[in-house]
Specification:
With 435 residues, this protein is an alpha/beta fold. The protein has helices spanning 2-16, 104-116, 130-140, 164-167, 177-189, 211-223, 235-243, 261-269, 278-282, 286-289, 297-302, 307-313, 320-338, 358-369, 374-381, 383-389; strands spanning 25-32, 41-49, 52-58, 69-72, 76-80, 82-87, 119-124, 148-151, 195-199, 228-232, 248-250, 273-275, 406-410, 423-428, 431-432. The chain binds zinc ion (ZN).
């Protein structure tokens, strides 16, 4: 069957492409984790032509076209390109946020860091301004080789609500439902890929967006056919949003472990993807407790001068509540996964000391800690990311016809998920990335 598909594709390719057209690329002999959740294919062959995967499977059934550029994959492992569902672009990183850092140059630098870590698509959730939309356009028209960018533009919160204490009026803070609807139409005019709402009263210390304003945003977004993704903390808010048509969540329910079976079943049925973003919680103490993590040479290479020193110098005492909520979020992530709720991977990269790319791989470790198997974690980082983006037909798995976004690593990530950082090569849309 695969051979027949391949032959017909070969014929089509032969008709469509002149003899001087792009040479096919063949990755031969690697183990393939295709992102679908299927067990790995050993001694696989992956054929890429142009920007697309033309065939992938066991060596015995995938012929290698004459003249293909060959890569010997012996001892290597291939996964789909990784997808980070929770990023903020344009920050320098470090303990202090500064809105003036948001420039096109810095956005491109952040995206290059994601790519270096094998991330070939990112979802930017709520802090995007014009420069980010310009970068998105450059990526889409092919003038910039960078991870695919899906952006929410500027997200919504309550007047004075989280995270305006950090980012000021970058967060939209409509006073009422009418103001919210008006701002949804601004986002529709910008062709935002999604809409972001923050719903978190920071343990009762910050105002929270009112339910009628949230409902107005969701209704206007539905009319404009734009999915809504929310930062949540409480179960009650997650349930209210689910009832009103939210498409996905950032962070995990952190105020209770009493996740009703009916809610889990509904999230599973509606395929609502959670990006638990556990790493963001852990960062409250991680570098203070394990400062050696900051000695990673890749961090030194991808961060701007002075950032690591500033992080080393920063001291804060995480509250008992923060630690409790982290443990709870870990357990709830495991429960949701077990119940069949799709879990994606998001890092909050670019917010404060949450380093682009690095934090994503830490998140994968935490998903394993939460009880996902390494194979499920790869699916979370690839296929479920594409599901959350509404991009399953285009990316997220290594299957015929999809975009050729690939990560090739040394060693078996199913034995240790940290092997996904041992990156040998990254392919973006059929092209090897210069690293
Ligand atoms: Zn965030």
């Amino acid at each position: 069957m695969r051979t027949l598909c391949w032959l017909s594709l070969l014929l089509l390719a032969g008709c469509a492409e002149p003899p001087t057209g792009p040479t096919a690329k063949a990755i031969i002999g690697a183990s393939l984790i295709d992102g679908t959740g299927a067990p790995p294919i050993e001694d696989a062959v992956i054929i890429v032509a142009g920007s697309r995967i033309r065939a992938a499977g066991p060596r015995a059934v995938v012929p290698i076209p004459a003249g293909a550029e060959k890569l010997d994959g012996t001892g290597l492992w291939v996964t789909p390109g990784l997808i980070d569902l929770h990023v903020h672009l344009g920050a320098k990183a470090g303990p202090r946020f500064d809105a003036s850092e948001y420039t096109r140059e810095r956005i491109e630098r952040n995206l290059a860091a994601y790519l270096a870590y094998g991330i070939t698509a990112v979802r930017s959730v709520g802090t995007e301004r014009e420069a980010g939309f310009a970068v998105r356009q450059a990526i889409r028209d092919g003038s910039l080789a960078a991870p695919a960018l899906f952006t929410a533009g500027r997200g919504f919160t309550a007047p004075g609500g989280h995270p305006s204490q950090e980012i000021g009026d970058i967060a939209r803070q409509p006073a009422d439902a009418a103001g919210a609807r008006q701002q949804v139409s601004e986002l529709a005019a910008q062709r935002a890929d999604l809409i972001k709402i923050w719903i978190d009263d920071l343990g009762g210390t910050a105002p929270k967006i009112r339910p009628e304003v949230t409902e107005a945003i969701l209704a206007a977004a539905r009319e404009a056919n734009i999915p809504v993704v929310a930062h949540i903390h409480s179960l009650a808010d997650a349930l209210h949003l689910t009832r009103n048509g939210a498409a996905g969540f950032l962070h995990m329910v952190r105020d209770t472990e009493d996740l009703p079976g009916a809610a889990l079943a509904e999230w599973k049925e509606k395929q609502i993807v959670f990006a638990p973003t556990l790493v963001r919680q852990e960062l409250a103490w991680l570098f203070q407790e394990q400062p050696a993590l900051l000695d990673d040479p890749v961090l030194a290479a991808t961060l701007e001068p002075g950032v690591l020193d500033a992080v080393r110098a920063a001291k804060s005492e995480p509250s008992a509540r923060a630690r409790e909520e982290f443990a709870r979020a870990i357990r709830n992530t495991g429960r949701a996964a077990k119940a069949g709720v799709p879990i994606g991977a998001g890092s909050d990269g670019g917010s404060a000391i949450d380093f682009p790319g690095w934090a994503f791989h830490r998140e994968l470790e935490l998903l394993v800690q939460a009880g996902l198997s390494p194979l499920e974690t790869v699916t979370a980082a690839t296929r479920n990311g594409a599901l959350a983006l509404g991009q399953l037909a285009e990316r997220g798995t290594v299957e015929t016809g999809k975009r050729a976004d690939l990560v090739i690593v040394r060693g078996n990530p199913l034995e240790d998920i940290r092997r996904l950082r041992a990156i040998e090569r990254v392919m973006l849309g059929g092209q090897w990335v210069e690293r």
